Amino acid sequence: MMSFQQNIRFGGCNPFMMGCFNPRMNFFMGLAAQTAGLQPFMPMMPVMPMCTCSIFNSYMPMIYANPYAMGGFGGYSYQAPQTFTYNPQATSNPFATAAPATAANKTSAASTSATPSKEVTEDEASDSESRPQGMTLKGKGRGTQYGPEFLKRVKQIAKNLNCNYRDLLAVMNSESSLNAQVVGRNGASGLICFMPQFFDVAKIRKMSPMEQLDLVEKTLKESKVTRGFAADAKLSKGDLYALVFLPARANSEVLCTKGEKGRDGKLLKYYESNSALDYNHDGKITKAEMATRIDKKYVSDNTFLA
């Protein structure tokens, strides 16, 4: 037994191929020693260099499998593995199935777990488009004809037209400063400056703001279809303003040009009367420039809720 013990101490083999964790082989070794009547020698047993089963290695934490397993006993010269240095910049991570935690995915994971997802409704998505809050107009709000009910009606019209309500408010602000009783030099009247050539403007001037909104919706719905837009088509800022400014050309990118003349040879003055809308001074007014005009005329909801 002493010779066998020295073989274990210096040879490093383990003749007991036990499928269990056994830093001192305390159970099975004790059983074998008792059977052979060698109990007094047990305290002298050295720590086994390794357990040569296919599961555990006494030199490694219990959670890891034994990468140095042997299929049978015999002489085995064990060498401790070199210290592994983890490189966080490496593309693979040997300690996890996921990629190594870099600064980028740490931030992404933190933001994903910290903020629960929220379902956004179609109306909320439309209303929350990245646009400025806009100006606050005076003389409106609660207690006037341009209070919360006015804003609510504008939102409903915009939904029916499939446009953003902020765009619609901006168009009316550009045309009339949201004054239903306004009268222009050319006789245009009302919220979107209805032209006297096509509307009974005297009657329109007597309408309340809410009544005029009904006419705004009716007019824009008809213009949208007659000018070639599908009834459910989404109207961009430029599309919407073109239907108010020059509906007959609302499907064209260029709405009017400088010096245009009619069939009778007279100057049409579409451009000349609105040359301030030619922001790049190229002699043309386009839908893109109408959209720029809208950007300058946004109205804050606080106008109607104050």
Summarize the structure.
With 306 residues, the chain is mostly helical. Helix content is 35%, strand content 2%.
Secondary structure class reads mainly alpha
What is the CATH top level name of the domain at 131-247 and 295-305? Mainly Alpha
C-alpha-based Rg, rounded: 42 Å
Net shape = globular
Distance between the termini: 99 Å
Helix content: 25-40%
Classify the fold: give the CATH topology of the domain at 131-247 and 295-305: Lysozyme
How would you explain this protein's 3D organization?
The protein is an all-alpha fold. Among the domains are: 1-77, no CATH class; 131-247 and 295-305, Lysozyme (Orthogonal Bundle), CATH 1.10.530. It is 35% helix and 2% strand. The chain contains eleven helices and two strands. The chain has helices at 2-11, 28-35, 103-114, 122-127, 148-161, 165-176, 201-205, 209-226, 237-245, 287-295, 302-305, and strands at 254-257, 284-286. Helix 5 (148-161) packs across helix 6 (165-176) and helix 9 (237-245) packs across helix 10. The longest helix has 18 residues, at 209-226. It is globular.
